[in-house]
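Try this one yourself first.
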């Protein structure tokens, strides 16, 4: 069957959200042009049973079950089974905006886009908007110019990707890391030649306390820091494969953001000065300490300029905020 778009929905213990998520896709105004791929990633709840029940009801749904490979691994399985012209990643606790999909595809088609970024709203459990990110371009740009000039979200879920583009450059997610979206999109934008943005709201993202960026679980925080360090190395190695001013600025900003985020995480959990200095020395010894390039995130850029470039004031700040 010729699908216009494949919606990839990873499932991991999200039984209470699945029906709302899938309903938001089924109720789009695209009839049978949408392929829904639900990848159960080793759930221990009723997620798989619910997904199979929905597949019996709707013939455009494919359900795949696998041992746990993390979010990136589940998305990769979806990509390997996608048949649509475009791919959209949708987390099971999120929903598409009503009748937005056909409009997004129309914009992508008109611009021959390899990537279309669309607006998204973050909502809480009560349905209240907690953030709304929006931007717009008038014509396609290559990924490096677009990233430095426009900027939208690091998420993979506010983007429509052309499947042939992803296949051409063998673009898949790194598995079992927390910041798979950022790492994936670094390679995506490095290779893209036609990126466009629309301010049309395409999805609503549920914000919960379980998000890793809002979670105080010590093991998850430690893994996040380890993963950021890993992605700094991956990104630095990738940078060496590209030449040109636009690539230099693109990778410099990405690396500066990663380094700043890593130390910002340490600051948030009140890590000791010895731990902070030890990490800095390790990164410097590996040529992986990047903090000279300004970054788009204003709060983190302020942290970069005031604290990261002057770590001698770190102990004083920690004492002041305790």
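Now uncover the answer:
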């Amino acid at each position: 069957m010729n699908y216009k778009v494949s919606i990839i929905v990873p499932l991991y213990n999200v039984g209470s959200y699945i029906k709302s998520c899938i309903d938001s896709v089924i109720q789009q105004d695209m009839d049978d042009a949408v392929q829904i791929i639900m990848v159960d990633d080793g759930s221990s709840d009723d997620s798989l049973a619910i997904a199979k029940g929905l597949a019996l009801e709707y013939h455009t749904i494919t359900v795949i079950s696998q041992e746990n490979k993390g979010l990136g691994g589940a998305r990769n399985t979806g990509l390997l089974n996608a048949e649509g012209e475009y791919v959209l990643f949708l987390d099971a606790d999120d929903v598409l905006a009503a009748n937005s999909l056909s409009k997004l595809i129309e914009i992508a088609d008109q611009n021959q886009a390899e990537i279309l970024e669309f607006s998204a709203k973050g909502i809480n459990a009560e349905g209240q908007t907690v953030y709304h990110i929006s931007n717009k371009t008038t014509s396609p740009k290559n990924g490096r110019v677009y990233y430095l000039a426009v900027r939208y979200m690091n998420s993979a879920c506010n983007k429509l990707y052309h499947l042939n583009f992803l296949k051409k450059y063998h673009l898949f997610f790194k598995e079992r890391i927390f910041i798979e979206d950022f790492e994936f999109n670094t390679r995506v934008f490095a290779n893209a030649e036609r990126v466009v943005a629309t301010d049309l709201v395409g999805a609503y993202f549920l914000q919960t306390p379980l998000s890793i960026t809002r979670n105080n679980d010590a093991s998850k925080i430690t893994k996040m820091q380890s993963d950021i360090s890993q992605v700094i190395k991956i990104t630095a190695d990738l940078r060496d494969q590209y030449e040109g001013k636009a690539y230099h600025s693109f990778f410099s900003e990405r690396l500066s953001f990663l380094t700043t985020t890593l130390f910002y995480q340490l600051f948030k959990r009140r890590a000791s000065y010895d731990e902070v200095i030890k990490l800095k020395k390790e990164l410097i010894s590996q040529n992986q300490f990047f903090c000279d390039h300004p970054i788009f995130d204003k709060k983190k850029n302020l942290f970069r300029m005031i604290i990261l470039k002057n770590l001698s004031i770190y102990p004083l700040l920690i004492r002041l905020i305790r």
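Discussion: The domain at 3-206 is CATH 3.90.550.10 (Spore Coat Polysaccharide Biosynthesis Protein SpsA; Chain A). The first helix runs from residue 18 to 26.
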